[in-house]
Each structure stands twice: as C-alpha cells, then as structure tokens.
Amino acid sequence: xxxxxxxxxxxxxxxxxxxxxxxxxxxxxxxxxxxxxxxxxxxxxxxxxxxxxxxxxxxxxxxxxxxxxxxxxxxxxxxxxxxxxxxxxxxxxxxxxxxxxxxxxxxxxxxxxxxxxxxxxxxxxxxxxxxxxxxxxxxxxxxxxxxxxxxxxxxxxxxxxxxxxxxxxxxxxxxxxxxxxxxxxxxxxxxxxxxxxxxxxxxxxxxxxxxxxxxxxxxxxxxxxxxxxxxxxxxxxxxxxxxxxxxxxxxxxxxxxxxxxxxxxxxxxxxxxxxxxxxxxxxxxxxxxxxxxxxxxxxxxxxxxxxxxxxxxxxxxxxxxxxxxxxxxxxxxxxxxxxxxxxxxxxxxxxxxxxxxxxxxxxxxxxxxxxxxxxxxxxxx
Length: 381
Prior knowledge:
Blueprint: H1 2-14, E1 38-45, E2 51-56, E3 63-64, H2 74-89, E4 104-111, E5 118-124, H3 129-141, E6 145-152, E7 172-176, E8 180-184, E9 187-191, H4 201-213, E10 221-224, H5 230-239, E11 242-246, H6 249-261, E12 267-270, H7 273-283, E13 290-293, H8 304-310, E14 315-320, H9 323-335, E15 339-346, E16 356-362
Parallel strand pairs: 5-6, 10-11, 10-13, 11-12, 13-14
Antiparallel strand pairs: 1-2, 1-4, 2-3, 4-5, 6-7, 8-9, 14-16, 15-16
C-alpha cells in the first residue's frame, strides 16, 4: 500500500497539488485472497493443438491455466476446474472468428457474496447441442451454479460481449435460473448473465457506505456515471431526492429494476452525462445538490466539469480507478476554488497496483440553507 500511496502522491505533484492529505489505504475486507467474485476465462489451443481453458497471459493471447487462482473465491475455483475438465473431456473446439470455425470462446463466472450462488455465461461463436450438455454437466457437478446462459459473439477482437441495438447484450438461458442476487449497502440487485457488477463486492459495499455517510442530509443527490445505480440507490434515503445518469441503456434498466424491487424512488436517465446535465441543472436550480462522479478510466470528458459547475453543487464526491485522470480532474476543481477535504484510497484489487480513490470536495460558496423543497420530478407518459 505504501507504493500505491507514493504513486498517487506523484500524480498529484505533476499537476501541482502538493499539500493534499491522503488517508491510509482502506484494506480489502475479504483480505488478500478469495476476494474476486467475477472471473473471465478463455478457450484456446496449446502449441500442440490440445484444448486449453484459462486466462490470457500478460500482454499476450497465450492462455495460461489458473486452477489455483488464489484471488478467486473457492466456489469460483471449483467451477473453473469443472469447466476446464468437461470442455477438454468433451473436446469442444475453440471458436476462431477469422475463420468462423469452432464453438467456444469464453466463460464468465460470477458469484454472489450475499447468497453464494454462481451464474455462468458461456460465450460462443455458434449455438450447439454440446453447450447444453456442458451446462448440464457443470450444474450436476457444482450445485451452487444457479444458472447457465449462452451469449453468441462472432465478432473479431477480444470483447467478451457484443451489444444489441437496444444497448444490452443478449443471452439465452440454457439451464437453471435467469439471475443471481447481490446486496450492497442495503440495496438488493439482480445480476443477469451479461451485466457488469463489482468484482470485489465487499470493498464496493464499504465504499458505498462511506460515500453515503458523507452525504449532506436532505440535499439533492446527482449521481453521474451511475452504472447500475449503486450510489443513488444507497443514498436516496439520506438525500431525499436522487437522480442517476448513465450512458449504458442496459445498466439504466437494471438500476430502475433495482429501485422498484427495493421500493426506492430514484430517477435514472440514459445518455451521455454532458448532454443530460443542462436539464438536471434547471431542475435543481437553487438547491445546491451534492454531486457524485464515478467516470471511466479516462476521467471526465470535455464539457462535463463545466456542466457540474453549472449545477452549483455544495459538495462533490469524486470516485476514480485511475490516479492520473483523477489528479488532472481534481486540479480543475481546485482551480475553481473547491476545497479537497479528503482523499481516501481503497484496496479494490489486492496484490496489484490498482486502487479505487474517493475524494470529498467542498464548494467555495457558503451552503445555502433554503433546500427544504426537493426538485420537481418528471412525469413519464
């Protein structure tokens, strides 16, 4: 953690933020091992033409067997072993998108920390009866596998899932149930076969709870890059009013479903953040909202910082997985007289150079107390 601390300090210094206090790294609640609840495997051939199941090697497409991957949960390791055993034993050929030949490409294995159940997604170049047979064998061997799905991907490249016109990734149920359930910060989620969800849910739960604890009570919450709605859903009871913005249409539909299932009144918008901000600005005018941003690794795209400033926020929570873009964006807010109250790294991926960073910022303007009335909600027809 000391090395990671020094790397973050270096990035801050490159943008002339030298005197900011960085808190100690919050360690992963599940420790250094058994924390990873999502594992992706590839199917390929060895140099001798034998079928192999494993992970891509560093900076290569070589497939490395990982039967004793210590960072994956024990149940996921058991499913990995069963998949490798049956795929090789059944001689299911890997799919080559350039030649349109073969069958199997990838596996995505997800486990719920709350229930222990596992959801398996097979990614293949074509549908074949052998995949149903494989699904049946794996579920017979591993009773914790709640369901097996099939996603067809014939596209070249390394992407696991291809998006449909609706913005989601289609998958067909082969055996078992359609989803597993997970709980973070008191909110229950249904996780489907192609959904993105937290790899280290115990650490995500800690981050969500810490962010919610820092929210100003009774102040509107604007959650930008909201994903499946984690912060907005967890924070709405404290804020009283919350809205989330996410580009991914499928993620927004999942967030809306979670809001309905948990009885939470949160609005979610599908679209680019920079395009949605002007409308939100009108709706929260004079309310001095708290803004949460959790952008992709590249940081905030052009126009978003101005859009956030137009919201006239009382405070901002910035969540980042990239210390370089984090430092650059932080510099912009400091230039607009925001105060950086705290910076806290979280050990999202133990044994690696990657952390999640959470910064709390306060507006230079005194907080306006006239916020008793929530912004108007849009009526959907």
